Amino acid sequence: MKMYDLIIIGGGPIGIACGLEAQKKGLDYLIIEKGPIVNSLFHYPSNMQFFSSSEKLEIDEIPFISKEAKPKRDEALEYYRRIVTSNKLAIHLFEKVARVEKQAEIFIIETDKNTYNALNTVVATGFYDLPNKLNVPGEELPKVSHYYDNPHFYASQKLAVVGASNSAVDAALECWRKGSEVSLIIRGPEVGHRVKYWVRPDIINRIDEGSITAYYDTTVKKIRNEELVLNGPKGEITIENDFVLALTGYRPNFDFLEAMGIKLSNDDKRLPQYNPDTMESNVNGLYLAGVICGGMETHKWFIENSRIHAKIIVQAILQRQSIQSDT
Ligand SMILES: Cc1cc2nc3c(=O)[nH]c(=O)nc-3n(C[C@H](O)[C@H](O)[C@H](O)COP(=O)(O)OP(=O)(O)OC[C@H]3O[C@@H](n4cnc5c(N)ncnc54)[C@H](O)[C@@H]3O)c2cc1C
């Protein structure tokens, strides 16, 4: 069986950056992605605009030209797709990695289609697959979603948005502007402080003027077909409801990491163990890249500050190879 220098699991922006860097440095690599190119971005809201300006999302200084300073989702899809196609990156799409096992010094990577051997592996699987659930009765109803796409769907409907961070606030504002009757259910006493500084006044003003109803210090207790039961400062209340957008964040697939032997911190953060100088985990030859490095702190790493992981990892692999060939 062919032996790769490097297999990269996940074809998000950071997995792609790793593939491009490996290609530039002459490594025999393969990216394996379970969906289309930059699958997570493909599933972001259709009208979404990045908080970063386009040059901060660039890989390897390849210019990212967008109409406004901060690009839209479709412009990012265009950019990352062109990087893959123009550079003819080695990528297998719609192939899911199920298991990674290390036997002697070789990684055996099993997917739903094939088995591969590699000397090194990079895990760049992001966090967007697993939503943080509300864990309340009724969450399985078809009216409940943990992903938001387009406001048109919710027009003239009673929509409850659960959450207080960027995704929840963006969805609440956009849907209200397209004619939804929006309630915002916030677990804490106020709109989150990490909400973009140019959006926070907008949501606060819409709440203050009564256009959007905010329920602070409130949690969802039960979801029924036409109602929501909330638990707040005045006790239990029931509101009329057609749809629920539970935008309460996402988490990395910790089981997947642990099954490969990666150690996680015992606290709530569940930080994976790695050396920040090389991005190598506690398993030799197994590297971590991108947002996955933050464990439950999914806001800590993003494209802007983790695109550098690609160069660090490829450099570490090259150094390792040169040490091995010297001995
Ligand atoms: C609404 C929103 C707005 C954002 N705006 C910005 C911004 O302005 N600036 C910024 O820097 N960041 C932003 N981010 C964060 C940024 O998108 C993520 O940090 C970034 O996508 C991380 O890249 P990644 O490659 O590490 O992970 P991802 O983009 O999540 O890529 C991981 C990939 O791995 C694949 N995968 C997962 N499991 C497997 C498997 N078992 N086998 C094969 N493939 C697998 C997934 O399909 C996915 O394509 C935003 C995020 C959201 C949700």
From TrEMBL:
It comes from Aggregatimonas sangjinii. One of its GO terms (molecular function) is oxidoreductase activity. NCBIfam families: Bthiol_YpdA. Keywords: Flavoprotein, Oxidoreductase. This is YpdA family putative bacillithiol disulfide reductase.
